[in-house]
Amino acid sequence: MKELFLRLNFASRFFLLVAILTALVALSFGLPFLFYPSLLLLTVLIVTTFLDIFILFQFRDICSCRRRHQLLLSLDDDNEIKIQIRNLTSLPLKIRIIDELPEQLQDRNFLIRTTLSAREHKEIRYTINPKERGNYNFGSIVVFSLSTLRLAERKDTYKLDETIPVYPSIIQMHQYEILALSSISNFQGVKKIRRIGHSYEFEQIKSYVPGDDSRSLNWKASSRAGTLMVNQYEDERAQPIYSVIDKSRIMKMPFNGLSLLDYAINTSLVIANIALRKHDKAGLLTFGNKLGSFIKAGKQYSQLRKILQALYAEKESSAEANYELLYSAVRNFIRGRSLLFLYSNFESVYALERILPLLRKINRLHLLVLIFFENTELSRFAEQSCEDLLDIQQQTAARNFIQQKDLIFQELSQHGIQAIKTRPEDLSLNTINKYLELKARGYI
After folding, report:
1. Quick check: helix, strand or coil at residue 80?
2. Which pick of 97, 146, 250, 277 has the fewest CB atoms within 10 Å?
3. H/E element holding 114?
4. CA of residue 269 relative to chain centroid, distance
5. DSSP of 297-350
């Protein structure tokens, strides 16, 4: 009996009818002829309500319910969640469904209304857009059922507690992969000429012919064959592509609910996937005031999974970035000339000038592409109309900050450093275009 009361609710129709009958009873004190009809109607309401309760609670299970989803959710994407519900009775039902969503979504008014005919099975779909990486804890699904009388309501709770991890955007990774590998991604009329390094892969051992490089003589093979043999090499196709992510406090800045670090993480996964598809090697390096993750560039089948797991665990640091540490790590850990995509942000030319000597040193060792962000909020503010002197002063300051970004781009270009200035939402597309451009022009 206690369980029944815990699962029983009265519907809004019941309270509406009670209110009407209460008004009739009150009027019957002045109009006596209304008393007995009011009493009769009250009796009918009580009997009908008990009948409705009996109809709803005569079944041990009125519905079955379960939640379906992907094993991993993607950051900053619409991820589909499915609720499969079946009416186990021969009665038509009107139901309300409450799915206890993770606290990170901050949605306290989630409600789905639907109807189920007798024995009907229905799949209900909704989407969530997570803005933080980490574990998302889904709770129970609560179903409120109404019969055709709609006076009483039955509450059923399905314990479906589960934890789903939110990883860097796998959905975007596949979307951009299709774009990058399509025919429109290739630059027409550009001859691909290799210009960097002297990187070779062993191909075969062959007999020496005049003109072969004497430095490639294989003396062991020559002694076995009784004639001069040389090692033959071919140019190495796979070039190392590293995503270098600054995870200092400057990357905590949010845009559209997502931090700059998360934008960089999503793009790093996209670039790693495309590089592997283009037969290059993908690697990762993160840093703040301390060195973070380092994954040596490789083209193995498991490389993308390693990068994905490392990106999933990255967190912003509250300290300033240590570029001396970055230079040391690049010099000691990254062997051979590589393409480095450095994701960072600068608000002024002065901030860039402090680390520019280190960036130039890195650029001499590798092909460096520095990626920094436009402040889209300032850009929108600067385009608004001015109403008073304060607005003029604020917009002048905003335009000065915007101009600083242009000066940063010019300063990098003057020192021969490739640069990308981009809006956060266009980061992946612009980075892909830069990678394809450099590859098509033979810089990598």
Report:
1. strand
2. 277
3. strand 112-116
4. 10
5. EE--TTHHHHHHHHHHT----SSPP-HHHHHHHHHHH--S--EEEEE---SSHH
Q: What is the pLDDT of residues 290-327, one digit of tens each?
A: 999 999 999 887 999 999 999 999 998 888 999 999 99
Find out whether 416 and 370 touch, Cβ atoms under 8 Å: no
CA–CA separation, 134 and 73 (whole Å): 10
Query: In the chain, what are the domain boundaries?
Result: 1-167, 170-191+237-440, 200-235
C-alpha to C-alpha distance for 96 and 123, rounded to whole angstroms: 14
Q: Which of 246, 254, 260 is nearest to 288 (CA)?
A: 246
Q: CATH topology for 170-191+237-440?
A: Rossmann fold (3.40.50)
Contact 67, 99 (CB under 8 A): yes
Q: What share of the chain is helix, strand, coil (3-state, %, to 5)?
A: 40, 30, 30
CATH of 1-167, one of 2.60.40.10, 2.40.30.170, 3.90.1150.10, 3.40.50.11540: 2.60.40.10
pLDDT in tens, 180-237: 666 444 444 434 444 433 445 556 788 888 877 777 888 888 888 888 888 876 545 6
